[in-house]
Amino acid sequence: MEKLTKTSVHRYEDLAVTVTTAPHNYGELYKMALRINKKRAFLFVSTVLGKHLPLRPQLPLIASALLAVTYYEQTTGKQVAERAVLAQALQTKDEAAIMRAYEVAQQLTLNVGDALVIGFAETATALGHGVYDCLANTHYIHSTREVVDQPVTLYFEEEHSHATDQRCYADEALFMRGDTIILVDDEITTGKTAMNIIASLQERFAHKKYVVLSLLDWRTAEHEARTKDFAKQLGIELQFYSLVRGTVTTSGAIALQEQPSLTGEAAQFTRITVPKAPKYQGYLRDTGRFGTNASLAAYCQQVAQALVPLRTGRTAVIGTGEFMYVPMKVASYMGEDVWYHATTRSPIYVYDAPQYPITARYQFQAPEEAAITHYIYNVAQYDEVMIILERDATDEQIAELVRPFHASTIYVVTM
């Protein structure tokens, strides 16, 4: 393990969370927040992922590029000169630095050999897709919590998550390509989720090498030893790489009471028609849910060109649930003062404390998953909000979704 030198303590009443990390030059990658969860009462809210906090849409794609560069450098022993430009964007979050870094990220074609990239739902679907974009000769799959009318190719559990069941529907042939599987998640806590999916994969597909890429890695020495023993038992090579390496310890506790969510009062929306892309089972075919080796960049540029004329000022582009990458990529082509974040199944606690990241929580029934409660956080004031949906929804379903947003105009875009 790298030498850990920076320690910070986050206190919430009697709960103290101590985080110690190794040196890095990526700036602030997360903020601490609370949740009602028996296993862990806190969580790391990413400042570069594009899930819970509004941010410039290029930032998550730059973070993905840095993960791809990290893996490439560790695998080949070669240095990527553009790493410094990518790191500076995460560190400063300066507009000019972000745009320079995004140009670099879009040009990366790192050759790591024939490999399959798998992103974890729901938070890392876009993160994994961004890694895949930067690696030549790879295919991409993301797991899903949604139930699709198709045989499940792979099933595993993400035990610490709010929703634990994970499935893959991609064709079996994709899982048999090459010897290397690259798993991408936003955070590694113990390594158990990675081991769960690897165990499921090894039951059906024999691979020699597994790589786990994450923004944050909090495994202890004990956890590291456990993953090494696991790899030895299966006869595989297993490596973990992350942007930030550290440990987390807690003392005390906090009693969090159930709290109501806001619902919002917005009611008016306008449907927008954009260029269509191939679909399968009602979903976009090439996002990774069913496996892909296609690029969606040209399609996302087309959609952006259709939406830009509707802009009048400060714009928010909203993804929904697992459908993060396409709205994020579309937003990245839409110019200045465009912000992105997404709805989520994960309930985060609103807590009154200085520097606490979650200031407002809105709740609604997701139009694409009618039985599932979704949330969105820290909704700001915008001139226009553009909610991008993967599947069609009724006016009644959309009326539920638009309520949280504060904007002169709310557009609903169905792919």
UniProtKB/TrEMBL annotation:
Keywords: Transferase. InterPro entries: PRTase-like (IPR029057), PRTase_2 (IPR041688), PRTase_dom (IPR000836), TRSP_dom (IPR022537), UCP020967 (IPR011214). This is Phosphoribosyl transferase domain protein. The keyword Protein biosynthesis does not apply. Gene3D superfamilies: 3.40.50.2020. Coiled coil: none annotated. Residues 286-403 form the TRSP domain. The keyword DNA repair does not apply. Pfam families: PRTase_2, TRSP. Residues 29-247 form the Orotate phosphoribosyltransferase-like domain. One of its GO terms (molecular function) is transferase activity. It comes from Metalysinibacillus saudimassiliensis. It comes from the Bacteria. The lineage of its organism: Bacteria, Bacillati, Bacillota, Bacilli, Bacillales. CDD domains: PRTases_typeI (cd06223).
